Amino acid sequence: MPFEIGIMTFGEVTTDPRTGSTPSPRQRVRETVEQARVADQVGLDVFGVGEHHRTDFVGSAPAVLLAAAAEHTENIRLTSSVTVLSSDDPVRVWEQFATIDQLSGGRAEIIAGRGSYSESFPLFGYDLGDYAELFREKLDLLLAIREQNPLTWQGRLRPSLVDADIAPRAFGDTIPVWVGVGGSPASAVSTGRLGLPMAMALLLGPITFHERTLALYREAAASAGHDADALPVSINTHGYVGATSQGARDLMYPSFVQGMAENNHQRGAGFPLSRPSFDALSAPGAGLLVGSPQEVVDKLLAYHELYGLDRAIVHMGFGGMAQKDHLEAIERLGTEVAPVVRREVAAAERSAA
Fold first, then answer.
1. Cα 316 vs. chain centroid, distance in angstroms?
2. Among 159, 166, 277, 296, which Cα is nearest to 238's?
3. Nearest to residue 290, comparing CAs of 172, 226, 207?
4. What's the pLDDT band for 155 if we cut at 50, 70, 90?
5. What is the rounded CA–CA span in Å between residue 180 and residue 174?
6. pTM for the complete prediction?
7. Cβ(340)–Cβ(299) under 8 Å?
8. CB contact at 8 A, 237 and 203
9. What is the mean pLDDT of residues 118-134?
């Protein structure tokens, strides 16, 4: 597959640290759809919406936002990032994303994850003690739904199905299902054994953070009989593309710190992040994709060389960043960064062939 570049959002309802204003949920919903439209217009490949179940996010129903985005876009792939499958029902997940697939003409994807935020478990009546088993069983069912209809299936934590007719089906042959992995060795191994694409999430840390994750994944995939080198892998990380290096950091830092404080796993539990520390996390060897277009190009090429990536998804605008600044960064990513990265990656792959 050609190297893909995209963006994602959680739809945070966060106070703008510069103006002190807080967007309404309606404003943030409309801005999310606008971000997808602009990303499509500038030629980006993927648009993702993350799932969170709190009042400081509007992404509690990503499928609804992605369906709206489908009607305002033409080419961009539409994915969850992630679907918290452990606390959802795979039948309903399939129905929703297959509907998006029909609306969009085959552009739907699912990135399934266990969920790093835990609010959805008590909300929908699930025991966190079943955290791992819920995901394993529900992923098994989701993959079975994708492959067969009608379906007979039996599990332990979810009622069984007998000759269940689950509709609609995908617009094309299938709907891609990725698994989001945050660094858990067990998650990497299980994803590799299943031969599924892996989306590696990197919040803060060095660019090398997932070397062990990827090694375990490919080793498990090969042991299970899959062509490990052919399985798609992505990196999902925070970033911002500014006109200049300093300008990008100046714009991203206040919002990022605000987001970490207001939108962390527990409200108000964000750790203090000084400006020097943030700048260090943006350095060439660090994971954040923030800087001028050339800096972001260089960082993406470094990621690709290190991991053999097929895709990078940048979480831009995290926190209370103004929509104008967010859209300008999306445009730079699509017009100044993505074409260069795609060209350089294609040239490197031709040379290696």
1. 11
2. 296
3. 207
4. very high
5. 19
6. 0.95
7. no
8. yes
9. 86
Burial class (CB in 10 A: 0-12, 13-18, 19+), 302: middle
Structure tokens at 250: 């100046």
- End-to-end C-alpha distance for the chain, whole angstroms: 15
The answer to whether the peptide bond before residue 339 is cis (omega within 30 degrees of 0) is no
Tokens describing residue 231:
């399985």
Pair 109, 81: CB distance under 8 Å = no
Is 183 buried (19+), middle (13-18) or exposed (0-12) by CB count in 10 A? Answer: middle
**What DSSP string describes 35-72?**
HHHHHHHTT-SEEEE----STTBS-S-HHHHHHHHHTT
Distance from C-alpha of 293 to C-alpha of 340, rounded to nearest angstrom: 10
- How far CA 233 is from CA of 38, 52, 107, in Å, comes to 25, 24, 18
What are the residues whose beta carbons fall under 8 Å from the beta carbon of 146, sequence distance 6 or more? 94, 170, 174, 175, 177
pLDDT in tens, 267-312: 656 667 899 999 999 999 999 999 999 999 999 999 999 999 999 9
Residues forming beta bridges with residue 79, ordered by sequence position: 48, 109
Which residues are 315's β-sheet partners? 8, 238
Give the pair of three-digit tokens for residue 181. 């992995």
Contact at 8 Å (CB) between 48 and 81?
A: yes
Name the phi and psi angles at 203, rounded to 5: -80, -65
- To 10 degrees, what angle do helices 293-307 and 338-352 make? 30
Q: Give the rounded distance of the alpha carbon of 21 from its chain centre.
A: 27
pLDDT of residue 332: 98
| pLDDT reported for residue 266 | 62
Task: Answer whether residue 265 shows pLDDT above 70.
Answer: no
CB 318 within 8 A of CB 236: no
**Amino acid found at 81:** S
Region of residue 11 (phi > 0: left; psi between -120 and 50: alpha; otherwise: beta): left
Q: Which residue's structure tokens are 């990265």?
A: 341
